[in-house]
Amino acid sequence: MKIQHTSLYQEMQSMASQASRVQPEAKVPAQATAATSSAQFGDILSSALNNVADLQRDAKSKVTAVEMGDRSVSLAEAMIAKNKSSVAFEATVQVRNKLVEAYKDIMSMPV
């Protein structure tokens, strides 16, 4: 399952809207839900991180090719690849920040 960095935010929004529409009567056992959702979330997060790493590798190779004078890669291609990797990395940092914030909120809840 390959997830593009632009569709990750849309996927998260659709999951949030689905979660808000869940009926209270239609509860699933907590253990089954936790195991499935954590596995899916982990897969999605891993896929997104791999996608960011691929974009960064591609940008680095294109920038290096332009610096070395390779005529098969234009400056515009290198700049676009660099900006794509930059945006993907910034989005990843924002997701990390939100996860850390959510973790802190959960840990500060009284038991």
From TrEMBL:
Stretch forming the signal peptide: none
* Alphabetical UniProt keywords: Bacterial flagellum, Cell projection, Cilium, Flagellum
What is the protein's name according to its record? Flagellar hook-basal body complex protein FliE
Nucleus recorded as keyword: no
| Record-stated family | Belongs to the FliE family.
Q: What is its main location?
A: other
One cellular component term (GO) for this entry is: bacterial-type flagellum basal body
Gene Ontology molecular function terms on file: cytoskeletal motor activity; structural molecule activity
Q: Which residues cross the membrane?
A: none
